[in-house]
Amino acid sequence: MIAQIGLSILLGAIAVYAWTESARAPAIGFVAMAFAAAGLYFVWLPAHATWLAALVGIGRGVDLILYVWVVISLLVLLNLHLKLRAQMELITALAREVAIANARPPADTQ
Amino acid sequence: MAPEQHRPVWIVVAAYNEATTVATVVADIVGRGYQVVVIDDGSNDGTGLKARTAGAHVVRHPFNLGQGAALQTGIRFALGKGAQSIVTFDADGQHSVDDIERLLEALHTRGADFALGSRFLGATVALPAARRLLLKAATVFTRLTTGLHVTDTHNGLRAMTRRGASRIALRQNRMAHASELLHQIARSGLGYAEVPVTIAYTRYSLAKGQRLGDSVRVLVDLSAQRLHR
Lengths: 110, 229
Known about the structure:
Mean pLDDT of chain B: 87
CATH class of chain B: Alpha Beta
CATH superfamily of chain B: Spore Coat Polysaccharide Biosynthesis Protein SpsA, Chain A
Largest sheet of chain A: none
Strand content of chain B: 15-25%
Structural class of chain B: alpha/beta
Shape of chain A: elongated
Distance between the termini of chain A: 78 Å
Radius of gyration of chain A: 23 Å
Number of helices of chain A: 4
Number of strands of chain A: 0
Largest interface: A-B, 24 and 28 residues
Helix content of chain B: 40-55%
Shape of chain B: globular
Radius of gyration of chain B: 16 Å
Low-confidence stretches of chain A: none
Strand content of chain A: under 5%
Order of helices and strands of chain A: HHHH
Low-confidence stretches of chain B: none
Number of helices of chain B: 9
Oligomer: heterodimer
Number of domains of chain B: 1
């Protein structure tokens, strides 16, 4: 029960994080939310995880959960990468304004 | 010279550590009576000073951002200066100034807002087979993703009207800007024309050119952009 509560809090936090990110990166936000919701479901109904794992050919339910966890981690990593790209766009815009404001004419016209 | 309604013409040259060639390139362009802006993309070899001395306006990025970012800065600067036509031109000396007039003429006679240089309609001098193959593959990819019937997608020699340039907003700082620009042309719905141009490869320009690894990075950059707003 303790493990289930702990995992639920963690997965719940990831779902909230994914929801806050979905406005900026909809694809990643929604997929991460779906995986977090699936994780929550299987934490409380592990027998269903075992059934589903057997259905898709994984074998044990715990392995399925592990794979889902790996996918969530990779999505969070990808989201971090996209955030860095978005920040780079802001830095570029700032650098561009500074550069244009300090434009220099040809040397012989000064 | 370019027809009256297409003047003034500004030539945008993006340059990163091109001190070896930039002065000659600028002098050739200025000699034809065009205004030139060199975007010194954070060079540390005196590129900006050489460009200014040769007669160019110089806009210097505080640090290296990439060719796409430099071109967008140049387009913004030229539009701010009242350019009616803008031509993008490489700093490594592989483009010919004679082609500038051909591109501008195409804007006028073919009523297009973009005139795109094509080395495959024109000529190449000393283009290695591997580079040719890479360029052809990039062209097939871009034709499929943009629907534009172009023959050379990664040619830095192109001209645009003021209206066309106003529709370009490059977000890809590095080499993926060439594909992004074609996507934006396709989305703008404005007319485009291809113009045969000559690209002369030298040992210097080949050393600075793109490789297979760069094309993988371009694909990653283009994919990443589709995942966020």
